[in-house]
Amino acid sequence: MKLCIIGFGAVGKGVSRVISMKKEILKEKYGLDISVVAVTDRSGAAINPDGLDTDLLIETKEKTGKISEYPEYGVTDVTGIHVLNQVDYDCLIEVTPTNIDDGEPAKSHILTAMNDGKDVVTSNKGPLSLCFSELIEAANSNNSIFKYEASVGGAMPIINFAHETLAGNEISSVQGILNGTCNYILSRMANEGSPYGQTLNEAQELGIAETDPYQDVEGIDAACKIVILANSVLNMNVSLKDVQIEGISRITPESISLAKKEGFLIKLIGEASHNNLEVSPRLVREGSPFAVDGTLNVATLRTDLADDVTVAGKGAGSIETASAILSDIISIWKSSL
Amino acid sequence: MKLCIIGFGAVGKGVSRVISMKKEILKEKYGLDISVVAVTDRSGAAINPDGLDTDLLIETKEKTGKISEYPEYGVTDVTGIHVLNQVDYDCLIEVTPTNIDDGEPAKSHILTAMNDGKDVVTSNKGPLSLCFSELIEAANSNNSIFKYEASVGGAMPIINFAHETLAGNEISSVQGILNGTCNYILSRMANEGSPYGQTLNEAQELGIAETDPYQDVEGIDAACKIVILANSVLNMNVSLKDVQIEGISRITPESISLAKKEGFLIKLIGEASHNNLEVSPRLVREGSPFAVDGTLNVATLRTDLADDVTVAGKGAGSIETASAILSDIISIWKSSL
User: Fold this and answer.
1) Angle, to 10 degrees, between the axis of helix A10-30 and the axis of helix A318-335?
2) Measured between CB atoms, which of A155, A288, A293 is closest to B309?
3) Does A210 appear as a known binding residue?
4) End-to-end CA gap in chain A
5) Any idea what the CATH number is for the domain that residue A28 is in?
6) What is the b/e burial string over A246-259, where b = at least 16 CB atoms within 10 angstroms of the residue's CB?
7) Is ipTM > 0.85 here?
8) Which of A164, A286, A310 minimises the CB distance to B311?
9) Which domain does B96 fall in, by range?
10) Statement to judge: residues B214 and B81 lie in one domain
11) Residue B76 pLDDT level (bands cut at 50, 70, 90)
12) Which residues of B touch A331 (CB under 8 A)?
């Protein structure tokens, strides 16, 4: 299976590292022989039809910041689209940064690959939350397999869980804590009684919140995930503009301690159902599966047979997100057998 | 797909009800046409090669207590083994009561079906926790598919989750709250400060604890599940006698309130790893995924890539357990395509 990795930030490097770690086991266990034939970043690309060295890819990027510096096979002046048009590959791994304005360049990468009949795995929330049905149609009409587990909740495996593990169940809603940064800030505010601004600053110093925290703390990131879950798990046809969004920046330590006295916590909850698409701070009972601390993501699926089923896992992290991408790659490989 | 349901208590009836509910959808969505050709209980059997009426099966059992009273097709004086030897079927649904002394009669039912090359789905913890490797060998040597999701945690889908959704990950341990009765008793003791004996009595009055609560409160039921998880998820080869077991009957309200002051809860935790097979009361931090109330089951898988991943769901219930059996049936059907 020849992979083309477009984008080589934390997630792209994670994928490369995971392939290094698992190459032999995947061959043994699944008969799956992965080779990375091209990788791109802003500087250009590294291309070798016989396969690139996944360790050397990471080393090159970490030392020079540029994948185009890859020994012998590095090239400048090429874009992702060029590479997809010129290289012979089986599956695109689209892991460029999320852009929620127009979903580019990820959208074009994905559509180019699909129109060529290639399979696609992505962690990119942009195109999925802006033009989901367009992507699904392109995949279907080209017989391309399209997988995107890593786009929601990193290592919390919710999409494949809903589709495969809960087969036979009808799922009527998804609710969850879908942003680790917000959950970290709210947990610390609850445990320490500290105000929002100060807690955000501390989270930024620890690298848990980004320098520009807007999309996280205002609920945009969670809303993107709600859109993806609504479309993929509930078979809806919605986009980001359909979600009612309220973030956590106006929550006070006083409201948190008031809730606590009554046995409740305040959490940023995303909800997708056929009646409601919403991200907002809500009261959660202590002792419920949503009463988790820290950067964890949690989601509950309401089903007709199994009742409520909950999954929780790390919402972010390079290797954790790459794990979700690897499970998608394995699933594509299995369905090709 | 012709099913033979051996055992027609809460779980067997649940399976029958779920098939009634989902018959048309399964045809549409998966092209799966299920027919129940035989059902047995202690009274005898109902057998019809053209398919029994799943609603009438439930009605007959609820009205008369005997499946042998099924109109026209009811028979007495037959055992499960007779039926399996005489009826033409594709898949055995073994849902007789769990027997942890010798696993019978479930063990013989399962081996009979496998030796005949039939697929098997079971919720029965007995044979799985006493002679797992014998069953797996029989399945492998007869090319029979063997699925048992419902045997651990009812509607909490942990086994297929580990095998399919987390593909690519190596799992090093499983920890969990695997007995809903114990978790209910401990939660009420924590919330109300009530002593163990009184809380158990109340749970019995509510039908949450059984009249003979021994296997639940002394940790045997959880230990059976730990054995099944160790064998199936961690590829170990162990049985019930290998588990160190301590139940909850000696826990006092005082120890619970002492723990609470320090921010901890007391939960009955099962653990399976290559170094440890244990069921015992442990301290669990508030805000952790194990800090759940009520009859919920929760399990955390420690993985090499995805870090800790947790699933939670109803540990018992007729329809919930049947949901797990249905997902196994669908998975067998898919792999036959």
Assistant:
1) 40
2) A155
3) yes
4) 12
5) 3.40.50.720
6) bbbbebebeebeeb
7) yes
8) A310
9) 2-155+318-336
10) no
11) very high
12) 167
